[in-house]
Amino acid sequence: MSALQCLTFLFLCLLLLQNTTSASPLRLARRWPSHSNFAKHPRRVVFPVNRSSCDLFAGEWVRDETYPLYRSIECGGGMIDPGFDCQTYGRPDSDYLKFRWQPFNCDVPRFNGVKFLQEMRNKTIMFVGDSLGRNQWESLMCMISSSAPDIHTHIIHEDPLSTFKILDYNVKVSFYRAPYLVDIDKIRGKTTLKLDEISVDASNIWRTADVLLFNTGHWWSHTGSLRGWEQMETGGKYYGDMDSPNEWTSRSKASTITQGAKSCYGQTTPYSGTTYPTSSYVSQKKVIDEVVKEMKSHVSLMDISMLSALRIDGHPSIYSGDLNPSLKRNPDRSSDCSHWCLPGLPDTWNQLFYAALLF
Length: 359
Ligand SMILES: *[C@@H]1O[C@H](CO)[C@@H](O)[C@H](O)[C@H]1NC(C)=O
Ligand SMILES: *[C@@H]1O[C@H](CO)[C@@H](O)[C@H](O)[C@H]1NC(C)=O
Prior knowledge:
With 359 residues, the chain is of the alpha/beta class.
């Protein structure tokens, strides 16, 4: 089995808001594996300070005129969904493209597509999750294509598995759509999330990957007609909602109150600041830490929540090819404040992924 003995990434974005409110991934914990197959070759000094004092996820956004890393026209062939292609669909401002994430104690290495492909030769990198995973998958395709321009590539768009093949290096970068990650099935006529299970079909495909990046979040907290499930099952017991004994619901509400005040429409600069504007993550972080600690595979939590929460300016709002003109005239109701423009924030997620994976 080629798969899980390599470095496995757990990338969790919890998106708790819908519709017009600004939604940002929650702050979660991160844990580096002490060793991995990719680190067997001698360690190169890349971060200017030693690794243990470098927290990639604590830092600030700084203006950088060399950004963005690519233009949307540089990644043709339908790599960017219309819903993320803000510049093509009329976004008038471009300052939001000019920010770089700067950790306090070290520098993030600049993404080098050729190096990435060389190191990943014969390997499969797979994003698993909801449309934010797709957002990040498309970003990585664009980053690779623009920084390794002479490669021969091929994209297969299918549901649930889409694959970008870089033929010259025998590398696959895939996206597997699984918004809840866990299995979802009809039990006694009710659509049920089986919290302890992954479907056989999904796990057979995930096993073929060398590196897996997971994300999940806002599908869990949809309500009303948007909710895609009727009950949850764990340990043979059924639950109608995420409240007691589980604390997610009250935590989501806390986040909604602190973040939901402002629509992303018309926002052109990041929030200033270097901390997440709420402490509701502390308890959540503990839960995640405990779960990750118990996992047998090498797992890292990419804690992109705080840095993303600051980027109120990075969402498509109405500059999405998915909105018709009448929806665009009504930003308060139809702005997309969940996904992210490309180029944009997901490029930073991938730069951090690249740094965590290869350095
Ligand atoms: C690395 O950084 C940590 C935390 O600042 C420090 O305690 C440790 O001594 C440093 N190690 C080396 C080899 O510099
Ligand atoms: C990649 O696969 C090819 C063909 O099987 C093999 O010749 C080559 O050594 C492999 N390279 C790496 C780095 O695994």
